[in-house]
Amino acid sequence: MEELKIALKVNDLDNVATIFANDVTDGTVVEMRDKKGNREQITVKGDVPYGHKIAVADIHIGEQITKYGEEIGIATKEIVKGEYVHVHNLDSMRGRGDWETEKEAETV
Asked: How far is Cα 42 from Cα 37, in angstroms, rounded to an integer?
């Protein structure tokens, strides 16, 4: 019997889930779980190392990428559901002073 591969979506705002399994390669089906107990089968696109992210919905260029309820980056390419999300398709927002978030822009 094949080992069940798990991805966790921690916050309702997240548009990525973290893979908690080894040997997740292109075409692997993972079970995405959230804190409410929902489960969804997602086919992974690309090879994803343990602890890295996949998209749980399509993400368009310029859209924010949210993990653990925090905005971690901006999509630099179209990202489809199940695709590996990492430095090849996102620009990090962490530690950057040159990007305003919508909330910061509203207070100015």
From this structure: 16
Domains of the chain: 5-107 (2.30.130.110)
Residues 39-86: pLDDT tens digits? 999 999 999 999 999 999 999 999 999 999 999 999 999 999 999 999
Residue located via tokens 């019997």? 1
**pTM, 2 dp:** 0.83
Ramachandran angles phi, psi of 33, nearest 5° = -120, 150
Q: How many CB atoms lie within 10 A of CB 67?
A: 19
**How far, CA to CA in Å, does 60 sit from each of 7, 53, 57, 81?**
21, 16, 10, 11
